[in-house]
Design goal:
Blueprint (H helix, E strand, L loop, with lengths): L10 H8 L6 E3 L5 E6 L2 E2 L7 E8 L3 E12 L2 H4 L11 E8 L6 E2 L5 E2 L1 E3 L2 H9 L16 H29 L2 H13 L5 H10 L2 H4 L2 H4 L2 H12 L15 H13 L22 H14 L5 H11 L5 H7 L7 H4 L1 E3 L2 E2 L10 H23 L2 H12 L8 H9 L10 H15 L12
Parallel strand pairs: 5-6, 6-9
Antiparallel strand pairs: 1-2, 2-4, 3-4, 4-5, 7-8, 10-11
Helix pairs in contact: 4-15, 4-18, 5-6, 5-15, 9-10, 9-11, 13-15, 15-16, 17-18
């Protein structure tokens, strides 16, 4: 017999139960009624168990955010979530046992409602079938072409949204800096996007492209890593660099970095980051890109790449303009003096280059062409986007592929992937199922 004193359920099983509660009405430990509108997407990374969920409190007030699952309510504090900003967006704490009287508080002092799923909930959940969203298996409809056309339309809407944002920024800031900051955000790879944008703000493109830095790769690397606060001497565990590369960067920074407004190591996510995405590697990749386009400048170099790219094979041309292999040292290190255990890898590889082309370069070129009246550039950008092949799936596209039963579909393009992201961001995570264009 299962009792509340002896819990016979794991977090994984409790997560499976949560995924069966779509549309169900629950009561929090505080006595408030809620209904599950959208379960969210299972998080395979650090942080809450489900991202971007939607619940309705008192049947009317929609609340959007993350869900955290625990066997015991005390695990929230036992796991240190109360002091971790990663959990500040949690809107519901789902547990099997309420074994602590304390309220669930986030790091920013927000109170999180707790739902305790009793033994009855477990039994009922295992017996009942999944309640699916209205869009479940819609991809298997007879008119597959119409479905794909809807995804194309959604993908173009997402492209236009990005281009519109670029146009706003281009009216406020110099074009090269807008492009530089956006490319920097893309290098941050979700966890360090804000940090990379801050680095681009503190060390603007106009400064990097000035005469004394323009043709020196070492100077660029020293300024970028020094301003980021990521040189060995700037870390909390200060250490004297052993390798020649690290020593040279430290020496250059000591000469040029006096008075610079540097960032702190604490402003970067450095733990539990895949080595190829480590901030130091991405910053070094950024220095190589800036060096590559030092003569014509980053802005003109990227725009010219779009203008000259052939329509059908343009993806390869544009990606090759961004791929960075770097020196032999950086192909074998993810941090200064710290080698990678994996095989040699590019500082900025094919997959990341493709993401930057689709999410930054092409919508930026479209916006630039609209502002400057260069209609040929504008048309070329959207045509390249429409023909761009499928990118590597991310967490959102994988989630939407499962939600719509699209696994195994072969005729997917980057535009259709962007369409999935558009639908997720504008309808799924907003709890707007009834307004989704797929159902209409």
């Amino acid at each position: 017999m299962i009792t509340r004193k002896r819990i016979k359920i794991s977090e994984k099983q409790l997560s499976l139960i949560w995924q069966r509660l779509l549309g169900k009405k629950l009561t929090t430990e505080e006595g408030k009624r809620l209904r599950v509108i959208y379960l969210g997407r299972l998080n395979g990374d650090n942080g809450p168990d489900f991202r971007d969920a939607v619940i309705a409190m008192d049947e009317s007030n929609l609340i959007k955010g993350d869900i955290e699952i625990h066997v015991k309510s005390s695990d929230w504090y036992g796991h240190g979530h109360h002091s971790d900003p990663e959990y500040n967006n949690v809107i519901l704490h789902v547990v099997a046992q309420r074994n602590a009287s304390s309220v669930t508080f986030t790091q920013n002092n927000k109170s999180v409602p707790v739902v305790c799923l009793s033994c009855d909930h477990w039994c009922q959940a295992y017996l009942m079938s999944y309640q699916q969203l209205p869009c479940f298996q819609i991809a298997k409809c007879e008119d597959k072409q119409a479905f794909m056309e809807l995804l194309d339309i959604a993908g173009k809407e997402r492209f236009k949204q990005k281009a519109a944002l670029f146009q706003v920024n281009l009216h406020q800031e110099e074009g090269g800096q807008v492009l530089f900051q956006s490319m920097a955000r893309a290098l941050g790879y979700s966890k360090n996007t804000v940090s990379f944008e801050e680095l681009a703000h503190r060390l603007p493109l106009s400064f990097i492209q000035r005469t004394e830095l323009r043709e020196s790769l070492v100077l660029k690397q020293a300024w970028l890593l020094g301003t980021a606060g990521l040189l060995p001497s700037q870390r909390s565990r200060r250490r004297f660099p052993k390798g020649r590369e690290a020593q040279e960067l430290e020496q250059v920074w000591q000469l040029v970095g006096k008075g610079a407004k540097t960032m702190s190591e604490n402003e970067w996510h450095l733990s539990r980051v895949y080595p190829n995405n480590y901030p130091v590697r991405r910053i070094v990749a950024q220095s190589y890109l800036l060096q590559r386009y030092c003569k014509e400048g980053l802005l003109m170099g990227m725009l010219q790449a779009v203008r000259s790219a052939p329509l059908m094979a343009g993806c390869r041309v544009l990606e090759n303009g961004l791929i960075v292999f770097g020196s032999d040292y950086w192909q074998k290190h993810f941090d200064l003096d710290i080698g990678a255990k994996t095989r040699k890898s590019a500082l900025l590889g094919h997959n990341k280059a493709a993401e930057i082309v689709v999410n930054v370069i092409l919508p930026f070129a479209f916006a630039w062409g609209g502002i400057t009246g260069e209609l040929g550039l504008k048309e070329k950008a959207i045509e390249l986007y429409n023909h761009y092949p499928k990118l590597v799936d991310n967490g959102i596209t994988r989630h939407m592929m499962r939600q719509l039963c699209l696994e195994g579909v072969s005729d997917f393009t980057a535009c259709r992937q962007q369409g999935l992201i558009y639908l997720f961001r504008n309808y799924c995570r907003e709890g707007r199922c009834s307004q989704c264009p797929l159902l209409r």
